[in-house]
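Second opinion, please. Pick holes in both lines of this record:
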Amino acid sequence: MDFTIRPVDPGEHDTLGEITAQAYLQDGLLDFGESDAYLHELRDVAKRAAAAEVLVAVADDGRVLGGATFVPGKGPMADIAGPGEAEIRMLAVAHAARRRGVGEALVRACLDRARAMDGCVRVVLSTQSTMRSAHRIHERLGFVRTPERDWKPLPHIDDITLLTYALTLD
C-alpha cells in the first residue's frame, strides 16, 4: 500500500477522529467504552490541530489510514514533555491498514519534525501496557522505556498507569 504522511486537512478531521476513536475502542483501550470521557478527546481532531501538529497518513486513493499528534514542547496538548522535548500523542491506524508500516511512518515523521526544531533534544510519549504493537514500533526506532516518568492520567483509578518512552535525538 502506498501512502503519504502530511499535515491533516480540516476536511479530514472527522474521519481521523473516528479512526482514532475506533482504534482505541476496538483494541479495548478505553475502560468505559463509548461512555469513556477520553473518547471525546480522541475524536476532537480540530482541537488538537489548533494546539499542535496533527499528521495524517493518506493512501494514494485518498483514504485516511491513520494519524498522530506531534506536540512541539510544552503547551495544552503536552502530557509529559519537558524543556527540550517534543511529544507524540494519539497515534492510531485504521484496523484495515495495520501491519503495512503506517504507524512506523507516522512516528518517523514526528521524529523528523523534532529533529528540525531548534533546541529539541528528546521525543517522549505515553502508552498503555496493552499497546504491544506500538511498543515494538517505538523500540525498533530507538525509544527506551523511562519507568521513572510513568504516570496515572486518572489519579483516582489505580489500575491505569501509562508507560513512558523517550528517544534522545542525535
